[in-house]
Amino acid sequence: xxxxxxxxxxxxxxxxxxxxxxxxxxxxxxxxxxxxxxxxxxxxxxxxxxxxxxxxxxxxxxxxxxxxxxxxxxxxxxxxxxxxxxxxxxxxxxxxxxxxxxxxxxxxxxxxxxxxxxxxxxxxxxxxxxxxxxxxxxxxxxxxxxxxxxxxxxxxxxxxxxxxxxxxxxxxxxxxxxxxxxxxxxxxxxxxxxxxxxxxxxxxxxxxxxxxxxxxxxxxxxxxxxxxxxxxxxxxxxxxxxxxxxxxxxxxxxxxxxxxxxxxxxxxxxxxxxxxxxxxxxxxxxxxxxxxxxxxxxxxxxxxxxxxxxxxxxxxxxxxxxxxxxxxxxxxxxxxxxxxxxxxxxxxxxxxxxxxxxxxxxxxxxxxx
Amino acid sequence: xxxxxxxxxxxxxxxxxxxxxxxxxxxxxxxxxxxxxxxxxxxxxxxxxxxxxxxxxxxxxxxxxxxxxxxxxxxxxxxxxxxxxxxxxxxxxxxxxxxxxxxxxxxxxxxxxxxxxxxxxxxxxxxxxxxxxxxxxxxxxxxxxxxxxxxxxxxxxxxxxxxxxxxxxxxxxxxxxxxxxxxxxxxxxxxxxxxxxxxxxxxxxxxxxxxxxxxxxxxxxxxxxxxxxxxxxxxxxxxxxxxxxxxxxxxxxxxxxxxxxxxxxxxxxxxxxxxxxxxxxxxxxxxxxxxxxxxxxxxxxxxxxxxxxxxxxxxxxxxxxxxxxxxxxxxxxxxxxxxxxxxxxxxxxxxxxxxxxxxxxxxxxxxxxxxxxxxxxxxxxxxxxxxxxxxxxxxxxxxxxxxxxxxxxxxxxxxxxxxxxxxxxxxxxxxxxxxxxxxxxxxxxxxxxxxxxxxxxxxxxxxxxxxxxxxxxxxxxxxxxxxxxxxxxxxxxxxxxxxxxxxxxxxxxxxxxxxxxxxxxxxxxxxxxxxxxxxxxxxxxxxxxxxxxxxxxxxxxxxxxxxxxxxxxxxxxxxxxxxxxxxxxxxxxxxxxxxxxxxxxxxxxxxxxxxxxxxxxxxxxxxxxxxxxxxxxxxxxxxxxxxxxxxxxxxxxxxxxxxxxxxxxxxxxxxxxxxxxxxxxxxxxxxxxxxxxxxxxxxxxxxxxxxxxxxxxxxxxxxxxxxxxxxxxxxxxxxxxxxxxxxxxxxxxxxxxxxxxxxxxxxxxxxxxxxx
Lengths: 369, 772
Known about the structure:
The structure holds 2 protein chains of 2 kinds.
Chain A: H1 4-7, H2 16-19, H3 21-30, H4 43-51, E1 53-54, E2 60-61, H5 69-79, E3 84-89, H6 95-107, E4 113-115, H7 122-125, E5 127-129, H8 131-137, E6 144-146, H9 148-155, E7 158-162, H10 169-172, H11 174-180, E8 183-186, E9 191-194, E10 200-206, H12 217-220, E11 223-227, H13 234-251, H14 261-276, H15 295-312, H16 319-330, H17 336-349, H18 356-368
Parallel strand pairs in A: 3-10, 3-11, 4-7, 7-10
Antiparallel strand pairs in A: 1-2, 5-6, 8-9
Helix pairs in contact in A: 4-5, 4-6, 13-14, 13-15, 14-15, 15-16, 16-18
Chain B: E1 3-9, H1 14-27, E2 31-35, E3 56-62, E4 65-74, H2 79-90, E5 94-97, H3 101-111, H4 152-159, H5 165-174, H6 180-196, H7 205-226, E6 231-237, H8 252-259, E7 267-273, H9 292-303, H10 310-324, H11 331-347, H12 355-366, H13 372-383, H14 398-409, E8 419-424, H15 428-442, E9 448-451, E10 461-466, H16 472-479, H17 486-500, H18 504-516, H19 520-536, H20 540-559, H21 565-585, H22 591-610, H23 617-628, H24 634-646, H25 652-662, H26 669-680, H27 685-689, H28 691-703, H29 706-721, H30 725-736, H31 752-766
Parallel strand pairs in B: 1-6, 2-5, 2-6
Antiparallel strand pairs in B: 3-4, 3-7, 8-10, 9-10
Helix pairs in contact in B: 1-2, 1-5, 1-6, 1-9, 4-5, 7-8, 10-11, 10-12, 10-13, 11-12, 15-17, 17-18, 17-19, 18-19, 18-20, 19-21, 20-21, 20-22, 21-23, 22-24, 23-24, 24-26, 25-28, 26-29
């Protein structure tokens, strides 16, 4: 876990198991509960790693997922059973984030991942060939290039399949044998790879995208489903955004300070109000734009603002710094969304005296366009 | 020396119930004492009746104030029920020990002000599980300090990290201690520790109440010991267990002092059917269990001595429930869900999965993560729809017996599930059902509530939503003071309500419900009160408002074969008096009074139109007087004009003249707008089809001064907003076309020179030749 190369400062984003190596080690040291085969930690320790908490030896484990502990427990328990885990939710509800940390805590590696796209081929889920070897020596294990799934089966670890529903249906279904029989046949060699205990699949899928390939019911019942919700309360969401922006800011070496918590609260409030179609005081109904205004969007708006403030401003985040990316996040459809945004600006933002600077910053952008 | 064994239980705890069964079987006592008011002894024998199926509740009510009532619900898995049943099956005498309800009710009455009986509450109730249901009442009960009634075993379980007290009992008590008697001894010891740290002051109301109850229990226990029984088993809430160990008894004199001079009242006892829904914590009665279905499952599983895993069998039932609702739930998924539940329990550090784990597992595995199917499972399975039955021999008030007989005759069985009943009033049996439901509604037994019949205009159809709630038993007992049969009680109740009715409108509504409930006696009573009241009624508005219900009674009373000559007489008198009074009553009204008057006139008009045989001359004359006077409020005058116009008694020209006069400049604009509102509201057809009228209105609107227009605009908008959208559009189009008779194409003057080139080109296409 202390790879020499990952410790090098030029890495933009460290893997979860690297970034939180000390926490994982501390947990492993105190963890005396039974561990399922090939698990690096017991289910209890995994849940603690995700949810955070103090350990008997004084180590403070930082929370990775701020939300319902119940959901995390269900997710961890799922992975200890025969079935895979399907994390479902609208974009930006920390599906991938949670999956990565689960893999890191349970298998000690989060590197085995298949990114699902509309063009994901079957080879990505099974195996490919080293064609030079194939032509030179004919089919053999040496000519076979194992995909992430196959490597996970051989090592008894977790493999992550991102955006499962973006993968074409026929390719998706090649997972069925892998997940139910726990074996991957290689007909070319008349051989198979049988999964070692501890192998399992974490898949993520979002239920908002249009044109997704719905899971076949055969595949669906190989997964336990956990639906990740958007944060319940404003405070919770502000906390999530603050934590993430701070750690991203540190990773990107942005010097700006986040003292301006009010700016985060404002951005999150805008997002929540537009998402819910209702102002926080429940007094005014609003139209919702086409964009998914998730927590992740709020995080990226704030990070952008942070970057603007650091490089072009005086280092502290102000309304002008967030306005541009805020408008960009809300207005995804240049016609409809713009109308919705302007209505919001005029009916809500304008009437809040303490939001005057934000209103002016957004208006300035409008006229500049 | 008598051997006394105290079995401290958790009310409605299946685990306790099972241990009680085992303990009684080992102990074979010759007397069983069970916590509960001693009045219950009168009805205990009924427990062995085969027709007695739990959930049932013992109902104790104050004989002279039936609203003051307590319920002692018992489910199959209640330890008390198990003890009663064991005693009945072995022929062992069983008695109840507690503070008599006679005392606790009397204390309650003494402690609350005079109007108290309206919000009865748990006069005594022991612990969380035993409760008294506050009978649902119209007036909200005053927020009451929830007494401290600890679920002692639940607290022990929570301290041990269990979400489910019953699973704790199973793991920590049953699996660890083989001998059931030792189990109870250990529990008593643990509770004694809990009670030792109780630091409430001795004069706190719930401490006083608890002391009183435990003193009463001890007194009865001492009496039983003196009778010379060899072995006595006492089944009581775990919290009381340490107080009932004879070795630690305080002197008898101290207890007698606590109980001396308590007030008493007369009480009656019976059994009533209960529902599993009412056993739940949430339904507002003191305390209960959150998941009766789950407890039932646990208990059935244990008593059957099944070797299957209790969690798996539960998940199988969840899957079956989902399948019944046509949701996929395969056997393989059940296997997975069961593994998942065990894994979850491990993650949460619990020795075995409880209901929380099973719910989460079912949601993730069987419901695709969605909470909707789980809500269904919760409703159908975790709570359930059980409705108990009690034997016919249970003591009951004659009214309840009559109700039961009527229900049987009409094949209307009470059910805990909400069902929709559609009644065709043309069929005799169905009419009888409707009559029964209407009578019950009059008596305040809200078993059925009227529902929407859907889109039918027929008057022969009625829809009801039926749902039997256990509290209705109390309502029936309460209503029994009116009479011994449903019909007689309803009639008396109506007569009583007629006497105290506040207004003529209330009376006429009462009259209409009598009609629906087929109560000729009730009608007579109401009519005589009505006759008195109308005779002294000077106010025209109530008189007018009485006309419609009376007319309805006359019209449909005839249909239903009720003698309505009395009603007819009152109606005639009322109409005459209203007509005479109308013109004067309309003078000098302010806006609010005018609105009330207009509504009354409308309602009277509707009532009169129901009876074609009635002569309307007086009415029309009265209206004409109201319409013709310029001093009468515009709203009323306008309305009167409209009604006359509809009746064909005023010419259009005359209306146009009045309109013009009323809307002319000399009339203040708000007054004019009110008149217009009276004339036009309700129906836009008049404006759409009478061009002249529309023209007049349009001219008036166009002519008013700007500042006046600002004043009348809201009034006008109010009138026009009542019209439907297409009607408004039609009116708008007519106005924009210029109102006048639409001009035909022939009258259009064409600019032939301008059109020339186009015509020529068009003609060219068609192969014609254009000249000119």
